[in-house]
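FW: tagging you since you asked about this chain on Friday. Here's the raw sequence from the shared folder, copied in full. Didn't touch anything.
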Amino acid sequence: MSARYQLSGTTAVEISAGIESGIRTGALSPGAPLPPVRALAADLGVSPATVARAYQELRQRGLLVTAGRHGTRVRPNPPVAARRSALRPPPLPGARDLSRGEPDRRLLPPLGPHLAALAADTGPSVSYSDAGVLPELAEAARARLDADGVPAGELTITGGALDGIERLLGAHLRPGDAVAVEDPGWANLLDLVAALGLRPIGVPVDDEGPMVAGVAAALAAGARALVVTSRAQNPTGSAVSAERAEALRALLAGRRDLLLIEDDHAAELARVPLHPLAGATASWAFLRSVSKPFGPDLRLAVLVGDETTVARVAGRTRVGAGWVSTVLQRLVLALWSDPAVDELVRRAAQSYEQRRDGLLTALAEHGLRAHGRSGINVWLPVADETSAVTALRDAGWAVAPGALYRIAAAPAVRVTVSSLHTDDLAPLAAALAHAAYPTPPPGFPT
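HL: got it, structure written out here
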């Protein structure tokens, strides 16, 4: 905790408000440690129970996380608007930033020509009563999903994949309910689960997706929802295989007490076949975002599912945001309809695959087995995350520590390959090998 920010208060409400203020102003940065309960109680002259209540309230709201022997810390992405001073500092001058998990901007389709065409074809403004999902967009979305074997269901539109997941969880679950999530898994989803007051149950992941035994254990522990990444899983790059899908469908078949959510965020960029679980349970939803293939600023995802599930999401949207902009819907439809854009996305997917596979091969030459079956990230197990990230920083590379994505999984680092060049692969692999295991693994020649 910053020595410049002193916690204060004599009640749990005052203490929690002071901590939240510190997070909002940036005095308590993401990941910052907080004093142990008894130590802070002694400093403030209050009972440990008072401090414990303050910490508990902030944990339930998703601002804090307790990590065993590492104590209580500010979450990496706490759900409170912070000043810019609290944002992640940039890498050291001259360093290559491979930590962000973003697509290569140079490979995104240009939006200008399509925006200009929309501007030239603009008709009367949409009224409140006429807004909603454009029929032509719904038709095009169904055709694309049908080509990938996603079963027909009701359809709506959300403001991106995470927005859709939030609406799904909020419509079906209540604070305290358990959610089965991949471990390691998407950091934003873990933060969302915490912010909703839900209880995450980690499901181990291998290259073929969530492991069947882990899903079964989560169900036995009372999970009321299961979130699965179909392909390009963040951070490991796993993709659900045909065999894994068959086994999971058999496990989930007929479950009426479980909400199944599938996230196919990479869509056209994945370069591996889709093997959906959609329809295995009575309550299900399949989400496909356009952000990764077409641009992060395009906040739109297609959501299909059973009638009740989609009706709940659409109804909640109607009384809140109302609808996803029809201007945005028309832009996405224009991108989907342009063969030149399809070719750009195909080339981008091929480029990411070459960079990812090239790094995996280079690491294998150093005796290291990393993971990255699909997508734009490589997940490399390491002996110690802190020392690995520090060593890589000193060597001029910024990567993401695995702690952002883990519940109980082993230490690792995530490397985003989207900005790499062929000439980067050998020196990066050498730096990663040195950072991952400063002492070579047993049996590996020096």
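FW: The CA atoms of residues 161 and 424 lie 32 Å apart.
HL: agreed, and The first strand starts at residue 64 and ends at 66.
FW: great, closing this out.
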